[in-house]
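Sample 3 of the quickstart, ligand fe (ii) ion:
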Amino acid sequence: MDVSSASFIPRKVTSAEEAREVVAAEGAVVVTGVADEAAAVALGRRIMGERALRCGTQFEATKAGGRREAMMVDAQPADSRGRKRNFGSAEERMVAHNDGFAFGDYAPDHLFLWCERPAARGGDSFLIDTARLLDLLAADSASADLAHFCRTVDIDHSEPNYPQGTYAPIARRTPSGRFQGRYHPYLAPVEGAAEAAHWAFVRRWETVVNAVRDTGPMFRAQAGEMICVDNYRVLHGRDGYNDPLRKVCSIWGWSTDAVAVPDGPLDIVVPKIPLAS
Ligand SMILES: [Fe+2]
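Result:
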């Protein structure tokens, strides 16, 4: 089946109010004319509006920074199920993901990607609307069982060696009423009798997400543009690039809609789950 229509190019707007409306309706938007990182963080906060709880730069995505973090992660061992963390390299197309996936319920519900400088070539972005993707899967008799699995069966969303202590379906409605659909490369079934059968569904979800990524449209954020994402509903990523001067700031935002909010910054290299407060 053709699932490419779950991937989309966000519209461009110029104000926080328009951005808030479009993110709520469509899952993502691009705001133009954002001068610097401080303005980007402030704009992210304005887009969340009265619901804003926490907003700040998580990291600056550059080739050199990515390589440093990837080396630290490479030194970490595989877990008891043979799963090994890997940050990949700038030259590779990214696996689609929700940001902060290692932190489970503490992941930000908003993501703002401010582009200070695009790559000379490559590094284009993609977005995948998981709500639309699951509707597409549910409407096709060949994949309706996969949609049902994603919506109803608890799985383990934790990264190797960093357990989250909770399980949840791939897609769910959060207590605040937001739709959440998740993907990252370490999803695994809960260990137990149904594990083998559930692995088959998790692998099918992976295959579908990769197919959307590789058949849907990509777009280029220009300098001064900020991609604003409903990080619960929409997966993101970028194509490979080589330009050491590319710089994109990843800004994480938590609103009152978030399932859980951390007290301080989160470390993606050593992703310990914050203690519930
Ligand atoms: Fe990301």
